[in-house]
What does this fold into?
Amino acid sequence: MNSRERFLAAATCQAVDRPPLWIMRQAGRFLPEYRALRAGHPFKEMVTRPELAAEVTMQPIRRYGFDAAIIFSDILVVPEAMGQPYTLNEGEGIRMDFAVDSAARVDALSADRDTLQERLAYLPKALRLTRAELGRERALIGFAGSPWTLACYMAEGGGRAAGATFQKALAMHREAPGLFHTLMEKLCEAVAAHLRFQIEAGADAVQIFDSWAAFCPPELYGELSLRWVKEIVSSLPDNVPVILFAKGMETLAPDMAATGVRVLGLGPDCELRKIADGLPANIAVQGNLAPELLDGEPEKARMATEQLLLSMQGRPGHIVNLGHGIRPTARLETVQALVEAVCMSGPRL
Ligand code: 1CP
It folds into this structure.
């Protein structure tokens, strides 16, 4: 069983020789080879130049042999293609040129398929270049932000380091529900198109990051986020697994599963087996080691990984990952210990 077969089997709850492994944000700052390349290129150049994006995508695969590669990009490329540019500045993080805070701003956003395809043309190119180097033995994952999480950034006009508290999307929903709805409709179309472009370019699976799920009150989560995810999933080919990662909404896992996704990515603060046992048997889970674990001793990470694997024994459909992105402070040898613990584990059903 090669890595791609193993990944796709786990995503569809079939038998595997061992659980597959990849790490959220594996293509990024914890790798010295990423930092070296980044020293010579602004972040956005790395995202928009296909040969650079493909190179960064391959870096963690070369070093660790993960079962899946995730294309190097960002969730903010979609708002940008819709007409809201962003920059990443040292010290102040993500900043967007303006906030989407009025009817005029929402109206000016484009969700036109051809426009998006043209503005995002670098990404299918990066995927094809990556596939040429990756081969067919490993899985390639495409991704997008969820409409809710993107709306959080767009309404705020920036990220955490720029002072965002991610309350403005919710305020828009409360104070101008019609406007919020129009924004979500446009986002839903744009995200669906973006994921289709990636699938057409050879992505084996796609992940929807609902990273800011927890900024939505749980009683509104279905209405403000999941209904749009469901619409996106129903517009995608059903032979390509969709992973929904929503940190902090684990109590609503059955509702997340009802969107039609095949895999739920769960945050680090829940018991993965307990959540999995409450889900239909054809829904796989992904996660959920604590990212901080990889900043510490290799032996501790090895033990935590073995414990996670043991807890998932007998439950088909587990993709090993962290519960959130790997931190820039992760230790290389501790990541290696995680890889070894997973590789030495045995068959799953
Ligand atoms: O060199 C640098 O300083 C750039 C740091 C960086 C990186 C490596 C950013 C800016 N984006 C990325 C790549 C990235 N972003 C990937 C690559 C593929 C991978 O290896 O996983 C992915 C999947 C993302 C997705 C992303 N971007 C999310 C969702 C994932 C998550 O962690 O929940 C979010 C919230 C973003 C926004 C973003 N992009 C970058 C930063 C610093 C941020 C956070 C902004 C904030 O503070 O709110």
